[in-house]
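Reviewers of the previous submission asked for a worked example of the structure-prediction workflow described in the proposal, so we include one complete record here. The input consisted solely of the amino acid sequence. No template or homolog information was supplied to the procedure at any stage.
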Amino acid sequence: MNNGLRAAYREEAAELLAELEVSLLELEANPANMELVGRVFRALHTIKGSGGMFGFDAIAGFTHELETVFDGVREGRIQVTPEIVGITLAARDHIQLLLRTPEGGESAVATAGHEILARLRLAAPPEASPAPPLPLRDAARPLVSDSPPEGTQEDPCSYRIHFKPSPDIFLSGANPLLMLKELAELGDLSLAAQLDGVPALDEINPEHCYTSWDGVLTTRAGEDAVRDVFIFVEDRAEVTIERITDAGEPQHLRVGDVLVDRGAVSKVLVEQVLAERPLAGELLVQAGLVSQQEVAAAVLEQQHLDGLREKRLKTEAASTLRVPAAKLDSLVNIVGELVTVQARLSGFAMNSGDPEIGFIAEEVERLSELLRENTMSIRMLPIGDTFTRFKRLVRDLSAELGKKVDLVTEGNDTELDKTVIEQLSDPLVHLIRNSVDHGIEPPERRVAAGKPATGRIHLSATHAGAHVLIVVADDGGGLNRAAIRSRAVERHLIAPDAQLTDQELDTLIFAPGFSTASQVTEVSGRGVGMDVVQRSLDALRGSLTVTSRPGLGTTVILKIPLTLAIIDGLLVEAGGAYFVAPVANISECIELTRGSAAHKGSLANVRGELVPYVTLRDRFAISGEPPQIEHVIVTETQEGKFGLVVDRIIGDHHTVIKKLGNFYRNVDEVSGATILGNGTVALILDVAKMAAGVVREGHRR
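From that input alone, the workflow returned the following structure tokens.
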């Protein structure tokens, strides 16, 4: 089996499993929603069918029993219960484990699968017990079955089936013969292969399918089961299914009657042709039944519909293209290098004074900017996929802790760089786990406090300039500040007589190893793991704020940059050294004259407001005398307004971020570096950490 096709199946199955989990969680809350039942069934059917095609027999056999149960749910024989949903979620996890298991190692995890299926058989009514697995890979099995399986209909019905795959169906990994085998499992099947489309031998493309099939199937399974056979190739094939007889004794039909019933010809035309008469249109006009204009209109309509059908068949089955993440990262790196070269070209053009070179540099800059924006947009993904995964987390934790908790999400369409989303998953897991464990009270305490028995966690995402705000809010009991203070004193984080604001006390929960839990459990208390949140945000160049109201709940706001690869920065210079400050943090720039009223110690008077600042010359021990007129870059940070004093402001700069080596991993105030057009290295400032460091130093003084 082609390794590329197997890898493609793994990717598709991973997406289907994610969709399956979401559908199951929604179905648990709304068990009567048949649309959700259909989504669950289709996901299982596709996983099973494609698994059988690509050699994942263990997955196909395991999923078949799940599919059979939900087929019973669709037909009203089985009721959806929380137990069935829970077992199916466990089965979904087992399928995911099978996907990750190396080929040939399925037997090592088979016991867990048998236990899940045993639980499923007990949860489903006896009359709806799953049927034996389908022999999907038995190539010797005939296409016509003499013993149709039992279905939901007391008497069989017959269906006319036309299956015409698109020529490129093999390129998607689908095998029409396996679908026809599965169709034969439903009942008595008669097939006729149509070979009119097979070209001459020297024109045949071995990767194309030129055959179509017409068949008649008599089955008790129902029309939905027949259509489900073709569910995962419906965009790559022309499939027509039409019921031709209901239950009862089929009547004898002449060939001409069958052709009329199939819509191939009209009854009048059949009679005329049998009488050796001319063409249908002419005969109808001559008979005075229709006019010549009506025939022309009918021919036009026929051609139009044929054209639409042909256009639909030529349309690609998917509108997206799967690209490995490594290739995308490589593209971003190349674009970053291009931005650097473009900056060098712009600098050279400016110094040369040649208008032709200047024009070329401007055009290259425009194209580089477009390429940069498009490349970054390719990396942007909606955060909703990450949010939906937490619904399962909340469900399992609330059941384990005996609580009732709903997770409400908002802003699922908000887009972030894929790298940011990947690094954001862990901190959100810790925040949500601790909200469920120590934020939301048990149902009886909530009712006693006048609250609904079911707690609520609100998870939202919104754009804020070059950042995204992620909010995790619960309506629980809030932070226990007395316990936080006591624990902080015990761990020598603060002095016993320290005077701290509520916000400063709340921030202590992010100290490494900090916890107010009285005993260790599998689920972390509020504070345990919060240092992971802080470290992850530091790596993302983000920040957070936490607010809590006793008895009303806790809200944590994460401020995350949209991307980690390229940022818009302000290039500045101090003593011959170059620095970049992210534009997203900057509110304004002002001049600062030594000895002026605006300059008092380490405070700058900005229109009557005193703003603390730090001089980059002093901060980075740059020698030399500063100029008489310096510049203050006023930034907005979590600590409030904060100024950076520099010698000179050079201008905007599209900054390609390069990570510093491990030797500099503990340098908090620099988040990276970039290469300027002249080859000089400029440090990228982490303004938030710089401001926090200055505030801490002020407190120590």
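The first strand starts at residue 157 and ends at 165. We consider this example representative of the routine output the project will generate in years two and three.
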